[in-house]
Structure formats: C-alpha cells, structure tokens
Amino acid sequence: MSHRPIFVVQLHDARRLHYDVRLEVDGVLKSWAVPRGPSLDPVVKRLAVFTTDHDLEYASYEGVHADSKYGSGAVIVWDAGVYTNLTPGSAAEAIEHGHLKVRLHGVKLVGAWAFTRTGADWLLVKVRDEDADPSRDLTVTEPRSVLSGLTIEEMAASGG
Fold first, then answer.
1. SS3 track for the chain
2. Domain locations in the chain as residue ranges
3. What confidence tier does 69 reach under pLDDT thresholds 50, 70, 90?
C-alpha cells in the first residue's frame, strides 16, 4: 500500500486570525497562510501566502504559543486528513512551477482545490466538482477543532 500524504488546516490566532493550510511534501509540511480560510465556492479566490515549511510533527499541534518560532497565539487543528496530488509530476514540482491541484479527504474539507502562484503570493480556489457548495461557509458553521473539539477562543482561554 502506498503512502497517502497528510494535510492539516490549523486555525491560528496570531497577529491576525488566519488558517494555515499545510500539505505533506517530501517529508515536511509546505504551508500557506490563508487569512479568510478555504471556501467551498469555486468563484471565490482566497489569498494564500506561502510561508515556512514546518516539521511533520507539527500537524497535530494544538495549544498556545508564547513567542515561538511559529508565531505566538492559540492554535487548533481545524481540519485534517490525507490528500491526493492531481497535478502531473510530484507535488514539489507543482509548487515549484506555481500550480498545484489536490483532492482533500478531510473531516470538513472534501474535494479538489487549486493553489496558483500570482507573483509573490498564491491563490487558493475550490475546483468545480461535486463537493463545491457556494451556500456553505465552513469557517462559520464548523469552528471547532477536529482533535480537541475546542474553538480557538476556548483554546486561548485554556492557556493551551
């Protein structure tokens, strides 16, 4: 059986609340900060800022950072699962070329999304497929961690 790479979406209340979308690629988590979170609407283009790679162990991290190398503030695992690279070649090559299309198999996020580099930044867009649903906003209706069941506010209040 072949290895299925993981993905994780962590909600992080740092300087600004944002979603960190992370994909396992070549033994690390390639990461994009998505200020407004993933959308299920294919016409919505979400800014995705490519950030530093994270260690794979970070995929299950929840807590409150106090001035860590990954930024301070509360963190929850908003969604997690495995993904399939839909782009020809490897995911690393696709990122290098500025366009990666993946199918997520998560608790909340299911279906295909595309990451496209536009100059210095990237866009995250839901692909038109059977899982697209413009009427649903999971960032509003599904605020809890898939690991602890806590909201970002509850995690911050707990002190991690």
1. CCCCCEEEEEEEECCCEEEEEEEEECCEEEEEEECCCCCCCCCCEEEEEEEEEEEHHHHHCCEEECCCCCCCEEEEEEEEEEEEECCCCCHHHHHHHCEEEEEEEECCCEEEEEEEEECCEEEEEECCCCCCCCCCCHHHHCCCCCCCCCCHHHHHHHCC
2. 6-149
3. low
